[in-house]
Each structure stands twice: as structure tokens, then as C-alpha cells.
Amino acid sequence: MNSSITRVQARRIWDSRGRPTVEVDVLLADGSVGRGIAPAGASTGSHEAVELRDGGEAFGGYGVQRAIDGIGREIAPALAGRDARAQEEIDQLLVALDGTPNKARLGGNALIATSMAVLDAAARSARLPLWRYLAGDAEVSLPLPEIQIFGGGAHAGRRVDIQDFLVMPVGAADIDEALAMVAEVYRAAGQLMADSGRRAGVADEGGWWPDFDGNEDALQMLARAIEKAGYRHGEVMISLDIAASEFGRDGVYRPALEGRAFTTDEWIAKLLDWVAKYPILSVEDPVAEDDTAGMIAFTQQAGGRVQVIGDDYLVTNAQRVRDAAAVKACNAVLIKPNQAGTISETRQALLAARSLGWSTVVSARSGESEDVMIAHLAVGWNAGQLKVGSFARSERMAKWNELLRIDAALGTRAPYAGRRALPV
What we know:
With 424 residues, the protein is α/β, with parallel strands linked by helices.
């Protein structure tokens, strides 16, 4: 098969929040066509790849014509004739073309959509499912899901300060049972919210949009939902994405529902109290991205009991992972391709974490599409965990359902990572 690139075409499409985003098609000489769609985050780290948006009044400033023009003007000519199988070489070229440390000139959204499209085209040219193209002959497993039940923070009008209240079906035997367990918890949570008169729709990622008086009220309700669904806490555990950078800076934390400001030590004490009282197995971004001392302190005190994930703190960057490991500031990393800006840089961050004995969690963003590539990345890279959002809305369910199709393709060779994916 001739896998040389003959055409790169970009267009504006729309994400799950009704905002413009970038879609790229890459056509190869053998007729294969790959596609990539850039997701977009609401809660973003200051060190992640920067999207190129148009600004102005149209679409609230979120237009992407400048990014699309850059693809046509610079990226497409540079990729013409390149072998799509040379992913790392192409991604290095994309980074060099942009020429900025944060992908700001051409846009992280332009680069990641192109990088994804090249990868997809190469797999299609090889006539392989993407997960198998990535894995080669290596063994793979179906990832442990982290699935949002309640949305908060920047994803839900800040009705609660904590961004994600999620569940992890660690007691499932396979991915089919794992998703079925979550479906029951999601339904039970919705019923409990309706019965209490506190159900206010769904948030950006499909989790219930609750009207709670305090952050701990959501934890209590989630624990009740797990029990109402018929599961013990050892079968379904809780994961929290604190997204503390949204309300913390310079060592001071001001979560609105708590009614007071906290020092780093006081905020960590609050989180440790929750860990002691509820079946919490994972905590993401417990403190703000500028609070390395806080990350170290929380990991020292809780890292033996819970997975401590760096998201805004690490922004899918291999060097930041290594730096954090050197001071024992986390034991897991969230892997978001658009944070890094290219597929190769995303993989480098995952491999850096794996080499340190950390767990890895491939993740979607709050602004998503029907694209299912991250399901294939989680399986093909054997990441162990996948965080997509909730168990509702088609841009989320497309990814969960894709795992079931991959599971069917693997047949009896499809182990479920489950609890083994965690560092604790």
C-alpha cells in the first residue's frame, strides 16, 4: 500500500457545546482517508497547548477560521508526499512549523486534529483497527472506566465547586459488566436527585447537574446512589476531579460552597477527611497547578490509599511527569491528546509515566465530538483507564460503545484491567 499523503483538508464543524472546532481529513495515495477532530476543554492548564481561536463577536470569539487557514496555507503543503506511517517524524514537523513552545501560532487545535488524522489514515492504510495498529503484537486490556455521575465546577455553572464526581466499577469481570454497573448507578443517582427535588438537568459532560448546598452533599448522594444500585463500595468506588486551579491560587483556596478560604494544609485536611469517610479511590488535581508543595503533601499523606492524578498540573507533558515524579508529587497522569498537541507527544507522556510505575488515564475533554479515537488509544496503548465523562450524551456514549465493539473483536483475548490498573 502507498501510504504517502496526497491531500490534507480542514473544515469547521461543531462540538458538544455547540462551539466551532477543527476537523481534518488526510487522504493517502492508496485511497485511504483518516480523520481527526480537535476536542476542547473548559477547565484548562496554563501550560497546555493553546487553541487558535478567531476572537471577535462571532461565535463568542470561538471561531476557528484562522486555524483552518493555517492548515491549508502551511501544514498541507508541508505534509504532501510524507509517509503517514512516520507519525513521530510528521509530528515533529508540525511542532517545528508552529515554532512556539505552546503551539500558539498555528494552534494546538490545528496540530492535534492533523496529527490524529495522520494516525487514523495510517491505520486504515494498513487495514487494521486503530487499537491493533497501535498495539502491534503487544497484549492489550480493556480499560477501567472513570464515569461522571455528577458534574460541577466549570462543567456545570459552578453549582458545586468540585468538577467531577465519578465512579469506577473496579469489581466488574469485564468491560460489558463495568458499563452495566455504571448505568445502574447513573439511573439510581438520577432517581435520588428527582425524589429530593434537586435534579437540574445535565452538565457539559452528561453528568447530573445537581443543586446541592455543599460539596459533601454530592459525595453523600453519590455514595447513596451506589448503594441504591445494589453495589457494595468494594465493587464501585468513587473518583473525584477536584480541578482545584479553578478556585485556588498562591496557596489559598476559595471554594464557594464551603463559605470560607482555606490554606493549602487546611484544604488537604478537608480532602483527607472525605477520603476517610467515603469510598474514594482516586483524586485528580487535589490542589492548584501552581501548588507543587501541596501536590507533594497530598501524595505523601494519601498516595498509599488513593490514585493521585495530575491533570492541569502535568498537562500531558513527559518532562513535567518526570519532574513531578522526582519530588513524588503524583502517582498517576491524565492523558489528553489536545493538551500535548500531537499524538507523539501524548504517547511520550504516557510512556514516561509508565516507566516510573505510575498509572495512566486517557481522557476526553468537556467539549467533545463523535470521534472515538481515545477509546482506541486507551486500548492500543494499554493505558489501563479511560475517562470520557458521563454515561449520557452521544459524544460520550460513542466512546463507551466503541469499547464494547473492541471487546467483541478481541473475544476471549480481552482482559479487563479493573482494579489492577490502579497504583494502590
